[in-house]
Amino acid sequence: MIAIGSDHGGYELKEHVKKHLSDKGIEVKDYGVFSEESVDYPDCAAPVCRAVQSGEAERGILLCGTGIGISIAANKFSGIRAALCSDVYSALMAKQHNNANILCLGGRVTGRELAFMIADTWLNAEFEGGRHAARVEKIHNIEKEQ
Fold it and tell me: How far is Cα 57 from Cα 7, in angstroms, rounded to an integer?
């Protein structure tokens, strides 16, 4: 299951991405928001990150206006590797090399069709492990030190 969430700035694109994934047969759970009423992006990141942390969701997708704020907030959660992607290659590398478990998108800066391609690429990619696993482990060790 893919957890998805947004603030008001990412709401419209979130709705399109959610439908796109559902139409492809991917189970998606929407953690809000459910309107364009102004909210704070850290509050919107939390339930999706917790769902990924707990294993309730395999991965998550978060959106805000630019994707910047919500990616910063998401990366404060232990075990979360949130990647803000604005192109397909970055989405591929985010999974293959960084094992990103949350994809972040900017609802005001990313077109709908591009967002679909980014999400599809990220969801279909596999972590390569090897030398990349050692690097991800170093990130995990930094988290443990904090």
Answer: 19
27 DSSP 8-state letter: -
How is residue 145 annotated by DSSP? H
What is the CB neighbour count within 10 angstroms for residue 120?
16
d(CA 100, CA 139): 12
pLDDT in 10s for each residue of the chain, 146 residues: 999 999 999 999 999 999 999 999 999 999 999 999 999 999 999 999 999 999 999 999 999 999 999 999 999 999 999 999 999 999 999 999 999 999 999 999 999 999 999 999 999 999 999 999 999 999 999 998 88
Sheet of 28-30: strands edge to edge? Answer: 28-30, 2-6, 59-64, 102-106, 82-84
Question: What is the set of active-site residues?
Answer: 64, 97
Q: Which residues contact 96 (CB under 8 A, 6 or more apart)?
A: 125, 126, 127, 128, 132
| Separation CA 123–CA 18 (nearest Å) | 13
